[in-house]
Structure formats: C-alpha cells, structure tokens
Amino acid sequence: MRINRTLFVALFILLAMPPLYAQEKQSGQSQDCQPAGPQIPLKVQFLVTEYDGAKKVASMPYATTVVTSHVGRRDSTGSLRVGVRVPVTVTKKGNDQEAEYIDVGTAIGYWVELMADGRYLASGWFERSSLFAKDAGNEPKEWTPSDVPPGGNPLLRQTRADFSVALHEGQVGEALSVTDPMTARVFKLEVAVSASK
Fold first, then answer.
1. DSSP codes of every residue in 68-83
2. Average pLDDT value for residue range 171-188
3. Partners of 61 in beta bridges
4. Largest CA distance in the chain
5. Could you tell me the residue ranges of all domains in the chain?
6. Cα-flanking dihedrals φ and ψ of residue 22, to 5°?
7. How far is CA 3 from the centre of its chain?
8. What digits encode the pLDDT tens for the residues 93-143?
9. Neighbours of 172 (CB within 10 A)
10. Helix-strand-coil split of the chain, %, nearest 5
11. pLDDT exceeds cutoff 80 at 12
12. Pseudo-torsion of CA 78, 112, 126, 54, nearest 10°?
C-alpha cells in the first residue's frame, strides 16, 4: 500500500513537470522578445528651403510613408533620392576621354523611432549636390539640366549633414540649417511626422 502511494505521488510529479517546464520557457521568451505593438503607418514630410541671403531661392517638399510598431526601436527606415545623373567627360591617362555619370540633386536617408513619451525621433542624413562648370568667360557657373553636359572636370558642390529631431505628431521642426561655403547660400531642412490616414 505504501509502495502504491509512493508510485502515485511520483507519477503525479512526473506528469506535472512538462506543463511547468513549458510555462517557464514561455515566460523566458516573453522577457527576451517584446511583442510588437500595433503597427502605426506614418507620413514623413521634408521641406528643403534654399536661401540666397534673405531671399528664398527654392522650396522643395518631399513626403514618404513608413510603419513603426516598437517603442525605442528603429524599426522604420526609408530613403529618397531625387535628381539627375549627369554625364561628365573626364580625361584619363593617354588623353583618352570617358563619360562618367554623377548623381546631382537631393538625397535623404532617415529612420523614425517612437519614443516612450509619445513623440517621434526623426533622424538621418541629408545631402544636396550640384555641378559648377566653366562658362564662356571661364567663370564657374552652376549647371542646370537645360545646359550642355559639362566637360573638363567640373566642380561638384556637395552639402551633407546628419540630423536628429524629436517631434510631437504633426509638429514641424527644423532639423538642420547649413551654409554652403562656395556660394554662401543657406539650406534649411524641416521635418514633420504624422499618422498616415
């Protein structure tokens, strides 16, 4: 009788162990990997404004969408590149000439992170480039797509900067303001993040 009781208790313990092991395993997994929150589609807007002194020369808006779902994790990234690939004639060794293509325009790489306080942290990099070729008077002139493709190793003007700005939904924030040392023109980048509808 005592043996039967001992066997019964041992059998009960053995049968109860797998569910206990499974519960421990599940609780351990939930600590390592937090479940994703609801996916939030976001509209990210950029406004690049160029000034020559106090005069506004150009205003270029860009908009794109991403999805974020984790607090404190950079799980939504994007990029955009707008411009033209310009053929530039380059003289190589032995006076051989070749055409190389150069990207000219605006490029933005970014990521949006949902912060614990409900704001969005928009971070990334901004790049703006243009070509300067010599005109008939041998003076550097900014190249435009209506001009003939530049030759003779033109100058490549390039402005590149990183940015990071914390924003409430719908708020517009100035992410950066940079001055081009070649032309003294000022580029400003404004960013806004809002829920996409």
1. E--BT---EEEEEEEE
2. 88
3. 47
4. 114
5. 1-33, 36-195
6. -65, -40
7. 71
8. 777 777 778 888 899 999 998 888 989 999 999 998 887 766 656 666 666
9. 14
10. 15, 55, 25
11. no
12. 130
